């Protein structure tokens, strides 16, 4: 496997659903005879469903093929039940594949859940030595690393305390520090940073980035936090129902994961009920449409977005403002704009047209939140209506080609400042 850290060939993992076996030969024979004669199973649990077949097969992974190069940081995303954790368990040799072959070049340090590989009765220090021994390291090798591990974990004060007394955050800090510093060629992390605080999360992401780029270690990272995926990974894999449906650029993978490709509509019906308790519906948004697009809402650098907003007012309303909040598809808020001056609505149907410049936005896909509200003489805000995550549009990247530059959200973010003007000397 030249320059490959991991090679997965036609791997599938199959499970059997339901309770398999009654625990004794007598119970198994009773259950078999009941199914054979069509009678009630005397060993069935109270409240158990009768329409589930005993031993029904379920494919958690279905014919997976994947190659990961040495020194590569690869993100793995997908909805719950897509097969992410199962794949990592196969790579960590927690369980074996039903079919297929997995070839791994190097030792693996994995962290699949909080406290994985730790013995609760041992102290933090003893667990460090135990994990190192499992990875095949000698005591002398662990001795050289242990001070770095303890310092990074930020649990020096409790390192000689049994880990059963640790909080979940302390567990994560020590477990990650062990996995990140021991001599392994491959790091496997499964949504482990969600427990740690924000400062430690950034510290861990930096450590994983250093491990991949500086030390040439391979990193596989599963997370539902798309921002951390962007920061760490240039390549991303999307799993769906046990299959790889995308393997490539991180931004494209995230867009597919967010399932927004089919939501780039020209017009949005907003007549559905709102899941909010703080709106009074004095003015209701009925429909929002792109006025200057008739196909797909894809905009060039110099274009402005023109929106038509159809509303219904129960009674005449004055001093109403419209707020548009712009955000990325993974709900990172970018900016906000508000109508000035305030709006006036007559009873019944009203149509409002607004224009929004987007030349300050970086290339990519975005959506909008709309809020209609009033502020009374006492400064209290009353929200009339709120509609979330509609009007998906794309800012085109074509204009970047003329400047011979590429734009990466993980590096440069989502806002583009105006071009820096070079002034002539006096």
Detail the topology: elements first, then pairings.
Blueprint lengths: L3 E13 L8 H13 L19 E13 L3 E5 L6 H8 L7 E6 L3 E4 L12 H11 L4 H15 L14 H14 L4 E5 L7 H16 L4 E5 L3 H7 L2 E6 L2 E7 H8 L9 E3 L13 E8 L7 E2 L4 E10 L3 E12 L4 E6 L4 E3 L2 E10 L6 E12 L5 E15 L2 H5 L6 H4 L14
Parallel strand pairs: 3-7, 3-8, 5-6, 6-7, 12-19
Antiparallel strand pairs: 1-2, 1-4, 8-9, 10-11, 11-13, 13-17, 14-15, 14-16, 14-18, 18-19
Helix pairs in contact: 3-4, 4-5, 5-6
Assembly annotation? single chain
Which ranges are low-confidence, i.e. pLDDT below 50, for 5 or more consecutive residues?
none
CATH homologous superfamily of the largest domain, by name? P-loop containing nucleotide triphosphate hydrolases
Number of helices: 10
Mean pLDDT: 84
Relative helix content: 10-25%
Q: In CATH's first tier, which class of the largest domain applies?
A: Alpha Beta
Question: How many structural domains in the coordinates?
Answer: 2
Element-by-element helix/strand order: EHEEHEEHHHEHEHEEHEEEEEEEEEEHH
The order of strands across the largest sheet is 5-6-7-3-8-9
Taking the alpha carbons of the first and last residues, their distance comes to 63 Å
CATH fold topology of the largest domain: Rossmann fold
Largest sheet: 6 strands, mixed
CATH architecture of the largest domain: 3-Layer(aba) Sandwich
Going by helix content, strand content and strand pairing, the class is alpha/beta
How much of the sequence lies in strands comes to 25-35%
